[in-house]
Amino acid sequence: MRLHVGCAMWSLKSWQGRFIPASGTDRLRSYAGWCNAVEGNTTFYATPSLTTVTGWAGQTPPDFRFVLKLPREVTHGGALADVSAMSEFLRVIEPLGDRVHALWVQLPGSFGPGDLPSLSRFLRGLPDSFRYAVEVRDPAFFHEPRRLEDLLTTAGAEWVPFDTTEFFRTPPTSDAEREAWLKKPRMPLRTAALTDRPIIRYLGRDATDRTVDGWRRWVPIVAGWLREGRSPTFFVHTPDNADAPELCRRFHDEVRTLVPELEPLPTPPPMPSPAPEGPPTLF
């Protein structure tokens, strides 16, 4: 029984000295002391080098999990027809091994129900050595979900909902919230799981109490999945993400109150003390 929790990134300027070191190259290692999963958003923009991915594996324990977004050339290049970038992508992520929890097929808002045949062909052509999770942005899928559910069930793939309902419940109150208000999708709520590895992306607010209030519905749902033998992953976003690693651990703790047999997350390592400044010099 395992619940994975994580953020949209493993390094953020506001985390330095608090969750991750202010300098150095081991920030993923420190992040992995707080959370046991991460969204691999950077792979959407560029396929990393084999050396880089090998470094990711070296900085994370075997039970850490990556949900890696497929390259945009694949998912946003035109109805999933051009998959030439996939072979190189699959080659370089090989060092992660079982740390790859799922490959994340995030589709644009222009991808609608009429495009489902191309998604079916795409999923059938992927190697079965990985698990797959699909995120759609067209609200029509949520109003009539059966066709997509049947397609994903046949492929053994999960449907990844992005819960933005709490965020859009009231107008923004900060610069970060106003920016997110313009960029984030207003998605209908979906709480059903299709596989034994459900993945939830949740967007709260900059105010901690609002973020926690908004995820209350998810705590019993995730607890129920754990009792059913599923292994859920819950990603916490806020507009500024300043407290996201700490919020992930709080969500994990709240689920543990309903499922006491769930093992707690390890205690995060202490941050190294900053190097003392030397006496002033003329040079």
Automatic annotation (TrEMBL):
Q: Where is the composition biased (Pro residues)?
A: 263-283
Record-linked InterPro entries: DUF72 (IPR002763), UPF0759_sf (IPR036520)
Region of interest called Disordered, as start-end residue ranges on this chain:
261-283
Protein known as: Uncharacterized protein YecE (DUF72 family)
